[in-house]
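Quick illustration, no need to memorize.
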Amino acid sequence: MNDYLKHILAGLLIALAVGLPCYIESINLFAGLWATIASALAAACVKEYCDNGYCLDPTVWDWRDIGCTVLGAVLIALLILGMHYGRG
């Protein structure tokens, strides 16, 4: 499986595990969106730090990996937006 696809799927799973429950519990659109994006961004940064930060070279981060992880979370954010405005 392509590495970038794995990052997109990881972002989807992180956002489903953190952002969607946050939105459902609070019914607050901004809480759900911030939790979705922030959790995926934090996980992606920790992953890149563990991959490259202290092991190899602290100046080398794969920003495309971080972007793909956040892209997966953005897809869940769009789902949250649809759920919020689809209620009527």
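The helical segments are 3-26, 29-53, 63-86.
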